[in-house]
């Protein structure tokens, strides 16, 4: 190993400053448990001096009995021209009972004069007094040198003087912050090397992503001698975000050979990233490195043909190392190799010389030409392939549906759907209301199916997207509807295309339910196999 790097996660504090990110106390507690299981060293829970929600978090997090991580409270140095022991912000950090405090102070002379409007000497005293006071109260102290790189470039002697004051007061860590996110990697390298020669205290890096260099700058700092990295899951944070730990951790461990977390914890990285995005109600980009759904996805037929022989031909690591998986997308660019891969995933015997296979490829390409998009709708694709090879049971069929929408003055729009379907040879007729046509159809169809398939109650629609395909046709244009559905174990996507948005939605909705039932059948088969194996063992 090259060395050990400590991970400091500030998703619960700095991450919540990102636009659209808002976490309740319950949310923060759930995320803290996942971060602890991931193996991070520090979890920054919030600023107890700023709001009651963070105070409640610090009280309740003690009941979680975290195994790996230390919870740290955030705050600033004392106010100018006051005593540290009378500063409410510092005392609140002590009162919440954490073992680690993270406080920030000014390193840039411009900020000292402009932001806090005091003298350079008073700023040094504020840093020294605050760190010493927290140390006297038995806390581990991480000193965040705010705007350090800008400060160093403006006045290197003063910037270095600020961190020496923190060291003199007993700081356990000195973290260099690229607060405005405007520093380049070569500058980070040069300045961190100077700092490592100027102080004996361990150094960390806190980078922002305003130049899309948060990850690169963090790696540059580590290679120059930093041994702590601060960042957030999925890079959440103010403006353009913080350095993304989801990329930093595997880069350090798999590319630079640093010891960061265990192999088992690294394999949970994708799950953690997606879990946090769900809790934060933030869309996770499909092309996010390492953990995105497209990070190990292959579309071109030549690429797929190559990875079937050896995945290293087009993948820089094995996706399982970070808990992700290889995916093959099927589209108009697809050749037989793509369908062979998908069929192998399904356990189907797929003969590329079969005329049926060639017909299926042409069918898929023609459907893509009509507007279908299978690379974002794996569930619909699997149903299509299984149906072509006679491996899909027709669990229900539509006879008819009707939708009624009524609007009266000063009243909300009322939507009701009436569905008539055949299930196991029996006709079911049901009606239901909903927030809109698709929701009403979903509710009515479930009323018919739940009596036969009670497991559907665990399934819900998690996303619904509509795209107009032919803008020139205005309201008569063909539309593509993508529906994402989830249960307690899986997430899948389905697609429908039509000139009528209700028809397109119905196609995607029906495929979603059919796929849910297919998943339940597979799960039941696996459970039966497990019981059978256990029975053999008992004999």
UniProtKB/TrEMBL annotation:
<dbReference type="InterPro" id="IPR002034">
    <property type="entry name" value="AIPM/Hcit_synth_CS"/>
</dbReference>
<comment type="pathway">
    <text>Amino-acid biosynthesis; L-isoleucine biosynthesis; 2-oxobutanoate from pyruvate: step 1/3.</text>
</comment>
<dbReference type="InterPro" id="IPR054691">
    <property type="entry name" value="LeuA/HCS_post-cat"/>
</dbReference>
<dbReference type="InterPro" id="IPR000891">
    <property type="entry name" value="PYR_CT"/>
</dbReference>
<keyword id="KW-0100">Branched-chain amino acid biosynthesis</keyword>
<protein>
    <recommendedName>
        <fullName>Citramalate synthase</fullName>
        <ecNumber>2.3.3.21</ecNumber>
    </recommendedName>
</protein>
<feature type="domain" description="Pyruvate carboxyltransferase">
    <location>
        <begin position="5"/>
        <end position="267"/>
    </location>
</feature>
<dbReference type="InterPro" id="IPR005675">
    <property type="entry name" value="Citramal_synthase"/>
</dbReference>
<dbReference type="InterPro" id="IPR013785">
    <property type="entry name" value="Aldolase_TIM"/>
</dbReference>
<dbReference type="InterPro" id="IPR013709">
    <property type="entry name" value="2-isopropylmalate_synth_dimer"/>
</dbReference>
<dbReference type="GO" id="GO:0009098">
    <property type="term" value="P:L-leucine biosynthetic process"/>
</dbReference>
<dbReference type="Pfam" id="PF08502">
    <property type="entry name" value="LeuA_dimer"/>
</dbReference>
<dbReference type="Pfam" id="PF22617">
    <property type="entry name" value="HCS_D2"/>
</dbReference>
<dbReference type="GO" id="GO:0003852">
    <property type="term" value="F:2-isopropylmalate synthase activity"/>
</dbReference>
<dbReference type="Pfam" id="PF00682">
    <property type="entry name" value="HMGL-like"/>
</dbReference>
<dbReference type="InterPro" id="IPR036230">
    <property type="entry name" value="LeuA_allosteric_dom_sf"/>
</dbReference>
<dbReference type="GO" id="GO:0009097">
    <property type="term" value="P:isoleucine biosynthetic process"/>
</dbReference>
<keyword id="KW-0412">Isoleucine biosynthesis</keyword>
<dbReference type="GO" id="GO:0043714">
    <property type="term" value="F:(R)-citramalate synthase activity"/>
</dbReference>
<keyword id="KW-0028">Amino-acid biosynthesis</keyword>
<comment type="similarity">
    <text>Belongs to the alpha-IPM synthase/homocitrate synthase family.</text>
</comment>
<keyword id="KW-0808">Transferase</keyword>
